[in-house]
TrEMBL record:
Localization (cell): Cell inner membrane; Cell membrane
Provenance organism: Aquirufa beregesia
InterPro entries xref list: Fe2_transport_prot-B, Fe2_transport_prot_B_C, FeoB_GTPase, G_FEOB_dom, Gate_dom, P-loop_NTPase
Occurrences of domain FeoB-type G (ranges): 1-162
Sorted UniProt keywords: Cell membrane, GTP-binding, Ion transport, Iron, Iron transport, Membrane, Nucleotide-binding, Transmembrane, Transmembrane helix, Transport
Membership in a protein family: Belongs to the TRAFAC class TrmE-Era-EngA-EngB-Septin-like GTPase superfamily. FeoB GTPase (TC 9.A.8) family.
Source superkingdom: Bacteria
Function: Probable transporter of a GTP-driven Fe(2+) uptake system.
Name of the protein in question: Ferrous iron transport protein B
Length: 699
């Protein structure tokens, strides 16, 4: 355990080899993580990585997780010992948490991380003297590079063997009668743990309502004020810690009467967190990022798209014409192709996000955005979920647990899905390719398709802010919230971690979203290939009688189109068509809107299946973009996917709540179905009205 940014998750990864996600901003570890560490040959121990906290007095849900484990000796995850990871470059602040954990009676090892950073800033730590002062084992480590693990092992082995006792004295004295009354009613415990129960009983799940009321009576009986005690205790602890640090840390700057060392972090922050240039640089980074996502990924995407089309054509050529062949080519392979084609873009997107996290720049984004966010009723910590929402709304909503204010947290949960996640990227890619010219450039340099993609992400962000402002007015959130964080030093990216992040993200997309897409593609193929009664069997004969002049490809297209329209899927699409007609959508798009509720990216797999069944275009190796581009609007005789329809669909998917997983996560985090229904209702209404306006204006 340790403070945010202290490096505990990096150490956890090093010890266990699990390669859990790490990042240079608070809120990365939002739940407990477990792994196995081989302490000695033949001796494995289980390690828990807990959320980063500054003290054991929780102010948010993720911090409550920590005290519910450390405060309850009967908890299944109660530790045999604790490794407190401390940032050596900010030792005084980090030792507050260490002293509290030690005083709970838990055997503790202090792991001093980032010693090199402290030395670069002019601080030299005498770890042997510090160990004597604190009466614990101290190990110097570099969690990023895996240095010092051997010394940490020895410290842990020694501590587990001897079980060093903590201080029995409370950091700030209280009446003995108060501690005795707590122990009589709730069992023997270390004095500081008894006091923790008294002060945090409302947040601790080990106590029932009757016990919590008993704690309240004890506080009234002894005139005990928990807020006043916490404040005084913290001041007292810092006084003691300051004396220890003064004796164990040499400040070379002060010794030589020199100016504090100006680091690269100090120099870079003058630009990156500047009140004006900070925003300009952030927008420029995002702009370049989405340009690269669109342009660099084009080549591998075209190869995958063409390869899947060639495979389909080859299989259709060598396999007999049968329902099984149709399910394989137009169902399974079309669905798989709808997944694989977007792997390059997902990989590039997460490459850039990981680089921003690894270098420490993401924390600067949170810092400069804090002032803006508060104007819209959001906490500064809301920046983490909103930025995380670019990847996926599910972990982004879970990361709101670090927000202390319930109303701020609720508003953040409700607006986070408006951020364009990676699931929307496949939809954006296909539709932008249809309505935005590929060869046109902005100022002769920037790809217009990349500019359009950047615009959609910005649109989602500003709509999230506007929605938060409206919700603030509705909920009448008046309490002020504060955002306090420490900016980490800039670090070189750990490319191994970047690669692991990309691999995990792509794997999750392929196997989590992918299995949904493929399953729905196959089910959709069945519903699109069969219809009620014997209507499907008679279609070919009817088409030939009504269109005697049609032959070859034109005849095949007409038969396939009529079969799709009369299938179960076609009937369902026709049923909802009147509701979506004002947006410019036909029954085929209606089918995709319904199926994509399972996951937004299913839209592309659905369209692949529908247009595979709807006929062939006049060239071989037809890809999904070519099929959609060739679609003709029966009412106008012009291309179906013109600018009006294309931008209407883009806006609809930018705002719509088309994700069951996100709604389920909202329910889990709010413990009520009311808020997921509100979230689904307002986002669907917003998407419908915005798409309607766009279509009517452009058409």
């Amino acid at each position: 355990m340790g403070n945010p940014n202290a490096g505990k998750s990096s150490l956890f990864n090093t010890l266990t080899g699990m390669n859990q996600k790490t990042g240079n901003f608070p809120g990365v570890t939002m739940d407990k993580l477990t792994g196995i560490w081989e302490l000695e040959p033949g001796r494995n121990i289980e390690i828990l990585d807990l959320p980063g906290i500054y003290s054991i007095y929780p102010k948010s849900i993720d911090e409550e997780l920590v005290i519910n484990i450390l405060g309850n000796p009967k908890h299944p995850d109660y530790p045999d010992m604790a490794i407190v990871v401390a940032d050596a470059s900010n030792l005084k602040r980090n030792l507050l948490l260490f002293s509290q954990v030690r005083d709970l009676g838990i055997p503790t090892v202090l792991a001093l991380n980032m010693i090199d950073v402290a030395e670069n800033q002019g601080f030299v730590i005498n770890s042997l003297k510090l160990a004597r002062e604190l009466n614990v084992e101290v190990a110097e480590i570099n969690a990023k590079k895996g240095i010092g693990v051997g010394g940490l092992k020895l410290a842990v082995i020694k501590t587990l063997k001897h079980r060093y006792a903590s201080n029995d004295a409370l950091p700030l004295a209280v009446a003995d009668e108060l501690i005795e009354d707590v122990q009589k009613q709730f069992g023997e415990a270390d004095p500081y743990r008894s006091l923790l129960w008294l002060m945090e009983h409302d947040r601790m799940k080990m106590f029932n309502q009757e016990q919590r009321e008993s704690f309240d009576h004890l506080m009234e009986k002894h005139h005990f004020e928990s807020k006043k005690y916490k404040s005084s205790e913290t001041v007292k602890r810092y006084e003691q810690i300051s004396e220890v640090v003064e004796r164990c840390v040499i400040n070379l700057n002060r010794q030589w009467d020199a100016e504090p060392v100006k680091t690269w972090t100090d120099r870079l922050d003058k630009v990156f967190i500047h009140s004006f240039w900070g925003y300009v640089i952030f927008l420029a980074i995002l702009f370049v990022m989405f340009q690269a996502v669109f342009t660099w990924a084009t080549y591998p995407m075209d190869l995958i798209d063409g390869g899947v089309a060639q495979l389909n054509d080859w299989l259709k050529g060598i396999l007999p014409d049968s329902p099984l062949t149709g399910m394989l080519t137009d169902g399974l392979i079309a669905g798989v192709g709808g997944v694989l084609i977007f792997v390059p873009q997902i990989a590039f997107l997460f490459f850039f996000i990981s680089m921003l996290e690894e270098t420490g720049y993401m924390s600067r984004v949170m810092f400069i955005m804090d002032k803006m966010m508060r104007r819209f009723g959001l906490n500064g910590k809301s920046v983490v979920p909103l930025i995380s929402g670019i990847a996926c709304a599910v972990p982004a909503i879970m990361s709101t647990r670090s927000i202390g204010s319930w109303k701020d947290r609720l508003i953040t949960i409700l607006v986070t899905p408006l951020m364009s996640c990676s699931a929307r990227l496949p939809i954006y890619t296909v539709l932008i390719a249809l309505v935005v010219p590929e060869k046109n450039t902005l100022f002769g340099v920037f790809n217009l398709q990349g500019v359009a993609l950047f615009g959609l992400y910005l649109l989602g962000f500003f709509m999230a802010l506007f929605s938060a402002w409206v919700l603030k007015k509705i909920l009448r959130a008046k309490e002020r919230s504060y955002f306090i964080m420490e900016l980490p030093t800039y670090k070189g990216p750990r490319f191994k971690h970047v690669a692991i992040s990309i691999y995990n993200s792509v794997r999750a997309f392929i196997f989590e979203a992918g299995k949904i897409i493929v399953a729905i593609s196959i089910v959709l193929w069945v519903f699109a290939s069969y219809g009620p009664g014997d209507s499907m069997a008679k279609i070919e004969e009817q088409v030939r009688l009504k269109n005697p002049s049609l032959t070859g490809v034109d005849l095949s297209n007409k038969i396939a189109s009529e079969k799709l329209e009369n299938s179960y899927a076609g009937h369902f699409g026709k049923l909802i068509e009147p509701a979506i007609k004002p947006l410019g959508y036909d029954w085929k798009i209606g089918i995709a809107l319904i199926t994509s509720f399972a996951a937004r990216e299913v839209f592309v797999g659905t369209m692949s299946t529908i247009y595979s069944l709807g006929g062939e275009v006049d060239n071989e190796n037809a890809t999904i973009k070519n099929r959609m581009r060739a679609e003709i609007n029966p009412d106008t005789g012009k291309p179906m996917y013109d600018a009006a329809l294309g931008f209407s669909l883009l806006i609809f998917y930018a705002f719509a709540m088309q994700c069951m997983s996100t709604l389920a996560t909202t329910y889990r985090e709010t413990k009520s179905w009311k808020y997921p229904l509100i979230q689904f209702g307002y986002m669907t209404t917003l998407a419908y009205l915005a798409a309607f306006l766009v279509y009517q204006i452009l058409s």
